[in-house]
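Consider the tokenized backbone below.
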């Protein structure tokens, strides 16, 4: 039976902490995330927190780029080197203008100066190593959709690199009208590549794309739910995907929160996903990272506002004039969590 064994709070400081990633490296868990005043704010920074005991995390890295910093991701470049990718939006997230960077560290604490990679407005949302190379699906902004959808369209392309700095295109994933964005990736031992792709146009259901080398011909499977910020992982010879879910769209109308967003883990099969676990998460939430320790135990990182929405914690007592963001939305903090999970 799938279950959450325990859950620890990594950071709870009144800020909006979000968009996690995680690796196990040199005997420690390393969690990256974004810290800012709100979900979209120009004061944001990329943070890395580290733990050697799986309970207490210490902030060890704080990086600021010009503008709104988004989705820092950790990559184990080799056994003795970490890489951190950061996307920065110099005019703010609503402008949809971005530049991606990568920086490197030999100890996980001291990073080299960030290096700009890819043309502007091209975003390698997640990067994974396979066969001595690095792969990622980059999405780039196209024209906006119609005013009724108020969503942006994207083109997604599979990219490859030898050094995480210089990238080349292999093929396009999906069609432009699919508006595919955030992508989870998994390579089988035989080299078959599976991607789960967030879709940014209605009906918002995720797309599973599968290709074999040389990754130029794709087969597509419509999945039966939306999955945002997907991450694919293998555990005990089965494939799983985790990401943001929509409880109402999935028929779970009994959730106690004012908003439908949550965090789920699905078993991933060729052509379908099967929901097996819902985690404590609500409001602005999800963006999980997955890692295992040397014993093969499975851990997840993510962010959530459920402690404030459930009334476990009060909202900070800010003056009313600073409790609203520039869109007039009430500011709610978001916390980072680290949990151990069992999938049976």
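A designed sequence for it:
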């Amino acid at each position: 039976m799938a279950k959450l064994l325990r859950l620890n709070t990594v950071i709870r400081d009144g800020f909006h902490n979000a968009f996690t990633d995680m690796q196990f490296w040199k005997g420690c868990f390393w969690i990256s995330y974004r810290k800012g005043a709100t979900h979209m704010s120009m004061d944001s920074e990329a943070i890395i927190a580290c733990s050697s005991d799986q309970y207490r995390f210490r902030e060890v890295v704080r990086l600021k780029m010009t503008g709104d910093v988004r989705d820092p991701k950790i990559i184990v470049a080799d056994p003795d080197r970490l890489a951190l990718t950061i996307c920065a939006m110099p005019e703010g997230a609503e402008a949809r203008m971005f530049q991606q960077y990568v920086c490197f560290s030999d100890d996980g604490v001291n990073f080299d100066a960030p290096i700009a990679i890819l043309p502007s407005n091209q975003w390698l949302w997640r990067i994974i190593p396979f066969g001595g190379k690095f792969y990622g699906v980059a999405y780039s902004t196209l024209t906006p959709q119609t005013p009724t959808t108020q969503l942006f369209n994207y083109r997604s392309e599979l990219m490859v690199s030898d050094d995480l700095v210089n990238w080349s295109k292999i093929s396009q994933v999906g069609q432009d009208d699919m508006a595919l964005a955030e992508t989870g990736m998994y390579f089988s031992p035989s080299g078959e590549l599976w991607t789960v792709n967030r879709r940014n146009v209605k009906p918002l259901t995720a797309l599973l794309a599968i290709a074999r080398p040389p990754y130029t011909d794709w087969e597509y499977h419509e999945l039966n739910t939306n999955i945002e910020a997907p991450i694919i992982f293998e555990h005990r010879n089965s494939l799983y995907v985790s990401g943001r879910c929509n409880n109402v769209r999935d028929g779970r109308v009994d959730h106690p929160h004012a908003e439908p967003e949550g965090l789920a883990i699905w078993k991933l099969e060729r052509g379908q996903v099967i929901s097996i676990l819902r985690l404590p998460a609500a409001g602005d939430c999800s963006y999980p990272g997955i890692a295992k320790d040397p014993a093969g135990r499975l851990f997840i990182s993510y962010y959530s506002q459920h402690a404030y929405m459930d009334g476990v914690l009060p909202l900070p007592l800010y003056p009313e004039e600073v409790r609203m963001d520039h869109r007039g939305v009430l500011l709610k903090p978001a916390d980072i969590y680290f949990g151990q999970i069992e999938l049976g």
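The longest strand covers residues 133-144.
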